[in-house]
């Protein structure tokens, strides 16, 4: 544990850096700047950042088997063609809620894209409550709503046996589990598995490691925590130099490195002066645990 190293690798100041995903084929980290309305790719070898600017906020990005990416932007599930930067709508949600937008998302083990919505933030972590829902985009581009009454739909991942979906609604300050039927993509039996302590901040993005433990980025907590979902306990805390840590994923060689995104939107001047690297992306090495490769959207 003493060999943990934290480096600021992308020094850009994203408004809300989020949804990091490692694309092994290209050797790049793909991520979004939600309110900056961008999808970006960073190559750790060349240090080059490529950016596609969008017309609406973009909550999440995921890999797509047929090439390019699938994104959750505004209230639209869309395909992003990286070569010509074109965006093609696949499906729409929350059409009765003009103030909503998509937030975090991830592809399930069978290639379905899950993403949730929220009401646009009045300021960080302040929203009209209960406006969000969790949705799935199936490979045939049909959409299913799992549940509503969500405040800020956030981190998602699946247990290694694919029988459990882990889910975060940030303002519940908890990590939830749901029974998952990987054959149909249906969820049931939602319950809390971990309730955050006050100093841990607000649970945001999340990923699972190859030992079945959850890594949760804590917004306003300046840390990632490793949660044992069976024991309902935090088993490791890694603090970062910025408070507004938003999400995390494993990547790099054999998925042995962790990437952590952060935000700078809505910071007061005092915090902005004290943590000028807010909005940057960090790399953590020496954790002694690996991640698992992300699944590609099958549609
Ligand atoms: O990135 C997200 O998930 C939200 O869009 C952000 O605005 C913050 O992270 C959130 O307020 C903290 O829960
Ligand atoms: Zn988030």
From TrEMBL:
The entry marks the following residues as binding substrate, namely 101, 103, 121
Residue sites binding a divalent metal cation per the record: 18, 154, 204
Q: Where is the active site?
A: 204 (proton donor/acceptor)
Catalysed reactions listed for this entry? D-glucono-1,5-lactone + H2O = D-gluconate + H(+)
Pfam families linked: SGL
- Quote the subcellular location field of this record: Cytoplasm
The EC number(s) attached to this protein equal 3.1.1.17
Q: What is this protein called?
A: Regucalcin
Give the organism the record lists: Aquarana catesbeiana
């Amino acid at each position: 544990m003493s060999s943990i190293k934290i480096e600021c690798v992308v020094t850009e100041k994203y408004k809300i850096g989020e949804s990091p995903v490692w694309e092994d084929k290209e050797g790049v980290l793909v991520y979004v700047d939600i309110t900056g309305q961008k999808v970006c790719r960073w190559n750790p070898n060349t240090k080059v950042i490529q950016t596609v600017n969008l017309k609406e906020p973009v909550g999440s990005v995921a890999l797509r088997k047929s090439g390019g990416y699938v994104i959750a932007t505004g209230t639209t599930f869309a395909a992003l063609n990286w070569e010509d930067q074109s965006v093609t709508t696949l499906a729409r949600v929350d059409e009765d809620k003009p103030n909503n937008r998509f937030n975090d998302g991830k592809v399930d083990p069978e290639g379905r894209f899950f993403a949730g919505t929220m009401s646009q933030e009045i300021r960080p972590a302040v929203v009209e409550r209960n406006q969000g829902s969790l949705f799935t985009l199936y490979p045939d581009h049909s959409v299913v709503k799992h549940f509503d009454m969500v405040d800020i739909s956030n981190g998602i991942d699946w247990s290694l046996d694919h029988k459990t979906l882990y889910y975060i609604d940030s303002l519940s300050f908890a990590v939830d589990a749901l029974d998952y039927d990987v054959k149909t993509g249906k969820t049931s039996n939602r319950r809390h598995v971990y309730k955050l302590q006050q100093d841990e901040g607000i649970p945001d993005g999340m990923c699972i490691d190859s030992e079945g433990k959850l890594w949760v980025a804590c917004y306003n907590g300046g840390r990632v925590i490793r949660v044992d979902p069976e024991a309902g306990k935090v088993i490791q805390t890694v603090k970062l130099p910025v408070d507004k840590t938003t999400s995390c994923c494993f990547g790099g060689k054999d998925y042995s490195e962790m990437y952590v995104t952060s935000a700078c939107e809505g910071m007061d001047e005092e915090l902005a002066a004290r943590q000028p690297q807010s909005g940057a992306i960090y790399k953590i090495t020496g954790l002694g645990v690996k991640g698992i490769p992300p699944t590609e959207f099958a549609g």
